[in-house]
Amino acid sequence: MPFVKVLRNGQITLPKEVRESLGLRDGEILEVEVKKSQVILKPKILMDAPDGGELSASGRKKVNEALRDLKKRDFTKHRNIDGLIKDLNS
Q1: Cα 9 vs. chain centroid, distance in angstroms?
Q2: Which pLDDT value is given to residue 65?
Q3: Whether the Cβ atoms of residue 15 and residue 2 lie closer than 8 Å to each other
């Protein structure tokens, strides 16, 4: 089991093998929970609340489907908007 060191300002670096085994990438958000003497890190997805109130039932369904795809990493990354538009039109 790898060890980590707490640095100035409380920072730690998760070992590469831990990040890879969890599929963590740069910039991802983790929730920090303390239980007894353990620190638990849970990957989270944050999103802005919709403008103008609640989502419709179909809107909630689409958001839930998108979140499931994100958790499974079932999506395509694009370097720019042109690549996205080309992919959407194909």
Answers
A1: 23
A2: 87
A3: yes
Distance between CA atoms of 31 and 40, rounded to whole angstroms? Answer: 8
Architecture of 1-44 per CATH?
A: Ribbon (2.10)
The model's pLDDT over 3-58, given as tens digits with 9 standing for 90+, comes to: 999 999 999 999 999 988 888 888 889 999 999 999 999 888 777 766 766 778 88
Write the CA distances from 21 to 17, 24, 61, integer angstroms: 6, 8, 29
State residue 44's pLDDT score: 84
- Could you state, in order of their start, the residue ranges of all structural domains in the chain? 1-44, 46-90
Q: In angstroms, what CA-CA distances link 41 with 4, 35, 48, 64?
A: 14, 11, 22, 22
